[in-house]
Structure formats: structure tokens, C-alpha cells
Amino acid sequence: MTKPWPSRTTLPVQFRDIDAMGHVNNAVYLAWLEQARNTFYLEMLGRRDPFTKGLGLDFVVARAEADYLAPMHFGDVAEIIMWPVRVGGSSFTLDYDCRKQDGTAFLKARTVLVAYDWENARSKPLSDELRALLTAGLGSGPWELS
């Protein structure tokens, strides 16, 4: 099942996400991106189990960058909007626009992902199917990081 770009995921702030300062710990934001990305990737390709050999998650994160714009607190709800901005031979780049329930931007981020062959422990070319799905989403985001 494919979903139109941009992808949207909503996640409530959990008590476990909060640090000693009373706001969401910075590392949690990357975990939220991972959750949104992995869930959408599997759905987009019609896959169910991230660990199924040849039919699971077949990429690694090569780079992650994040601009923290506002704190999140217990009771807040995060909306993670994600879309592709570059599709290469064996890698692709996703941008993220993350907002609170009131529309306040709390994070802008980008990840570079590399298609990965787990058996041979090396990168691999993007499949034609994945390339087409990613290419269809180019230009669908509200902004692109510079």
C-alpha cells in the first residue's frame, strides 16, 4: 500500500521521553524520526516485518542532522511530516518538518539513507520500485533544508 507524499505521522509525548529538565530529550527526536521513517517505508513497499530477509528494512542511516526549534513537553503531540528531497543510485535523502499540535515547529531535520545488503555487508543499488516511489515524492515538502 502506498501513501501519498508527504508522509504524516502523529506521536504523543510519552513520560519516558522526558528528561530531568522537564522536556523531551534531544535523542528522542531522532528516535521519533526513525519510527516515522521505518513505519512508512514498510507500508510504502507493502512489507510487514522489518526483519524479514530481503523484505524488511534494507537501509542504514548514513547521516542525520537536526535543528531543534522549540521544546516539547509531556502532553504534547508531535506531527512528523516527511518527504524525499534526493534520490541517488544507492541512497536517498528525506527531510522532516516536525510540529506541535498547535502548529509550532519544534524540529527540522534531514537524513541520508543508504540501501544496504545485510548478507554482504555493503551498500546496494536502490530497487526500481523504491526509486519510483521516492521520485514520485520529490518536491512534495513544504520546504527543503539548505
Order of helices and strands: EHEEEEEH
Major sheet size, sense and barrel closure: 6 strands, antiparallel
Any low-confidence stretches, pLDDT <50, length ≥5? none
Count of helical stretches: 2
Q: What's the architecture, going by CATH?
A: Roll
The CATH homologous superfamily: Hotdog Thioesterase
Protein structure class: alpha+beta
Structural domains: how many:
1
For the termini, the CA-CA separation is: 31 Å
Q: Could you report the average pLDDT, rounded to the nearest whole number? A: 92
CATH T-level fold name: Thiol Ester Dehydrase, Chain A
Overall geometry comes to globular
As a percent range, the share of strand residues is 35-45%
Helix content: 10-25%
**Regarding CATH, which class?**
Alpha Beta
Number of strands: 6
Estimated radius of gyration:
16 Å
Overview of the structural elements:
The structure is a single chain. This protein is an alpha+beta fold and 146 residues long. The protein has one domain: Roll (Thiol Ester Dehydrase, Chain A). The chain has helices at residues 26-44, 128-136, and strands spanning 7-12, 59-68, 77-87, 91-100, 105-117, 122-123. Strands 1, 2, 3, 4, 5 and 6 form a six-stranded antiparallel beta sheet that branches. The longest helix has 19 residues, at 26-44. The chain starts with 6 loop residues before the first strand and ends in a 10-residue tail after the last helix.
